[in-house]
Amino acid sequence: MRGNETLVLALPKGRILEEVTPLLKRAGIVIEDAFDDPSSRQLRFKTNHDNLDVIRVRSFDVATFVAFGAAQLGVAGNDVLMEFGYSEIYAPLDLDIGRCRLIVAGPKEDEGKEDPSRWSHVRIATKYPEMTRRHFAQRGVQAECIVLNGAMELAPRMGLSRQIVDLVATGSTLRANGLIELEHIADITSRFIVNRAALKTRATEVNYWVERFREAADAA
């Protein structure tokens, strides 16, 4: 990678983007107007820094872009980092945004009847099959994972699975769909991540942005 190439910062779409926007401002990053234009089909955006561009992708894809060097910097939840386990990614900074938790949930009528500690086999709908399998394997439980990318709360109602593993913030969506939390797996926040190869070959540039985001997070 040549030192004069533009660095690329991958940002996640959705709720996390709303929370990271103030950090961008405090870090001195202004993205071109098309970034905030809902009618724009543009995918890569210039910033007020000649050597920094921004891309906006699905939250799960941020880690992939950074791991494979298509982006050198990114913001990703540690749920994504734990799910994929990319060795090519270094996460030097917890931004303390996007707070939520990864949990096991099931129908409310199972409250007091289901004891997760007694399960030997469980069928789970989730978008986190690797984390789910690891979580249950730690106590010898076989987890059969059905991978869904949305509408997770429908799975128990439609007979797809009895339980789900999903992210929750307030738990209101669970309650609205007749589900309760059965087990806590992990607390989740978003991290500033970098590509390890870029950290070696472009240390000055990459570390500059690590420190800018560190200062921005500390000033929150």
Structure description:
The protein is α/β, with parallel strands linked by helices. The chain folds into two domains: 7-98 and 189-218, D-Maltodextrin-Binding Protein, domain 2 (3-Layer(aba) Sandwich); 100-186, Periplasmic binding protein-like II (D-Maltodextrin-Binding Protein, domain 2, 3-Layer(aba) Sandwich). 31% of the residues lie in helices and 31% in strands. The chain has eight helices and eleven strands. It has helices at residues 15-26, 59-67, 78-84, 129-137, 154-157, 172-176, 196-201, 203-218, and strands spanning 7-12, 44-46, 52-57, 73-77, 89-94, 100-107, 121-126, 142-147, 163-168, 179-188, 190-195. The strands form two sheets. The protein has a six-stranded mixed beta sheet with strand order 2-3-1-4-11-5, with helices on both faces. Strand 7, helix 4 (129-137) and strand 8 form a beta-alpha-beta unit. The longest helix has 16 residues, at 203-218. The chain is elongated and about 60 Å long.
Give the structure's gist in a few sentences.
The chain is built from eight helices and eleven strands.
What is the strand and helix layout of this fold?
Layout lengths: L6 E6 L2 H12 L17 E3 L5 E6 L1 H9 L5 E5 H7 L4 E6 L5 E8 L13 E6 L2 H9 L4 E6 L6 H4 L5 E6 L3 H5 L2 E10 L1 E6 H6 L1 H16 L2
Parallel strand pairs: 1-3, 1-4, 7-8, 7-9
Antiparallel strand pairs: 2-3, 4-11, 5-11, 6-9, 6-10
CATH architecture of the largest domain: 3-Layer(aba) Sandwich
- Give the strand line-up of the largest sheet: 2-3-1-4-11-5
Number of domains: 2
Residue-averaged pLDDT = 93
Intertermini distance: 34 Å
How large a portion of the residues is in β-strands, by DSSP E?
25-35%
Taken in chain order, the helices and strands follow as EHEEHEHEEEHEHEHEEHH
Question: How many beta strands in the DSSP annotation?
Answer: 11
Which stretches of 5+ consecutive residues score pLDDT under 50? none
CATH class of the largest domain: Alpha Beta
Could you say which overall geometry the principal axes of the C-alpha atoms support? elongated
Most strands sheet: 6 strands, mixed
Q: Considering DSSP H and I runs of 4 or more, what fraction of the residues is helical?
A: 25-40%
CATH topology value of the largest domain? D-Maltodextrin-Binding Protein, domain 2
- Taking all Cα atoms into account, the compactness measure Rg is 19 Å
CATH superfamily of the largest domain: Periplasmic binding protein-like II
Structural class designation: alpha/beta
